Amino acid sequence: xxxxxxxxxxxxxxxxxxxxxxxxxxxxxxxxxxxxxxxxxxxxxxxxxxxxxxxxxxxxxxxxxxxxxxxxxxxxxxxxxxxxxxxxxxxxxxxxxxxxxxxxxxxxxxxxxxxxxxxxxxx
Amino acid sequence: xxxxxxxxxxxxxxxxxxxxxxxxxxxxxxxxxxxxxxxxxxxxxxxxxxxxxxxxxxxxxxxxxxxxxxxxxxxxxxxxxxxxxxxxxxxxxxxxxxxxxxxxxxxx
Lengths: 123, 108
What we know:
The structure holds 2 protein chains of 2 kinds.
Chain A: E1 3-7, E2 11-12, E3 18-25, E4 34-39, E5 46-51, E6 58-60, E7 68-73, E8 78-83, E9 92-99, E10 110-113, E11 117-121
Parallel strand pairs in A: 2-11
Antiparallel strand pairs in A: 1-3, 3-8, 4-5, 4-9, 5-6, 7-8, 9-10, 9-11
Chain B: E1 4-7, E2 10-13, E3 19-25, E4 33-38, E5 45-49, E6 53-54, E7 62-67, E8 70-75, E9 85-90, E10 103-107
């Protein structure tokens, strides 16, 4: 059974940094692209970032480009999201999601999701 | 960036009734559209991909249709566990992978 377990969410001050982790089990992480999606409290879903299976290609939403960095350590079955220069509008539950293939290319979908980790940016 | 709109925002129905949810794209996404279900306090769950293909383990009462800019998710007969928020997502234009604002299906 596929399991994704996020961690690292916390209360952080504006301008601060945080690193989220997503530990994967139940499937071969090296075969799949992965993504982060966030959801502000009481609001809808927003795609944040994605990375190919081999880590060679990565993509970001305009709202986080230059501030967030996605990475993965396939030897540790773990996906990461390094977040810097955090803003109040980054407050959200952050979900990691597994894609249906090794690529983030079109026609690939998010078929498994973790339970999320909450990031709160406030002074 | 492709913008998705969903209607209605809220759908109030009784168990056993048919639910019809709409998703419209600002430009053609061909059939590169998915539907997700999210219950309170839970992660989203993939229901439909490629506009009309049910994901693994999804009951047959869920069906998707459409192509281009107009899509529909139909739940043929609502079960108590189907009351949730439903999001559409396009996977045509990338890198951004936009989601619609959601339709809440609640109990009448």
